[in-house]
Specification:
The protein is α+β, with helices and mostly antiparallel strands. Helices cover 41% and strands 17% of the residues. The N terminus is likely disordered.
Length: 276
Amino acid sequence: MSDSTPKKRRKLATPANGPDQPGKTEVDPRLFVGSLEKGMAVLELFETARHPLSMTDIVAQTDIGRSAVQRFIYTLHQLDYLSRDADTKRYTLGPKVLRLYRGFIGGRSALDRARHALMALNQETRECTSWVEMLEHEIVIVENLPSPHITAVALAAGMRFEALSASSGQVLMAHLPPEVAQRVFAASPPLARERAGTDDIAGVHKLLERVRAQGYALTTKAFDQDSLSISAPVFDAHRRPVGAINLSTLRSRFDKKEALAVLVPAVMEAARKASG
């Protein structure tokens, strides 16, 4: 099934909704621009689209009327955030969106500090290493250094995974206020809860307490049952978690015992060096 097949309609936020991420405050309806949110909802559809989308596809996947979608598409196309095929009349992301990624990466001082440690970990272990951050109830790969091995875990910047069952999500939530874990748990699908090994919020808090005490998280990769994911948190000068350093490897090279003995200390040391 292609990505242009109509999917579950994207639910838009409302000014009455609470914050989705740490540091956000309640939405102020006097300042919230609903039309801008709808325009961004159209743009965000292309994040996971593997094929060009038609206007009909976009209407089917949002809670936005056809005439409004038409205006948003036209505007985004005129601003070069969308490209349009003249023959098929389908849309893809335009090259201008890369400017946003450049600004996103360039404005992250924590990542700048972490790069040396991330590169050293990659060279020392010859495994896939990544800088990871929280994004609502998911984690997102912000920067990745691949493994030189022919067979290896392959990650790329922009990939997202459920935070509840991801090692990076667990180490970050372990050092964030409890209400963050509660929101993540409430938004997580049953499969993520199953992979995390808990079906209630009490179990989540117990898991995070253990992660916080040991200083790392080790999980089986959600998309590949033959791989291990190890993460440790990176802190700023005020001991606030700003990201996580992750290492992903295959169990054919490191079983869990070997990973605990060799890889976990290396990941924790890299995170320590990267912290402010």
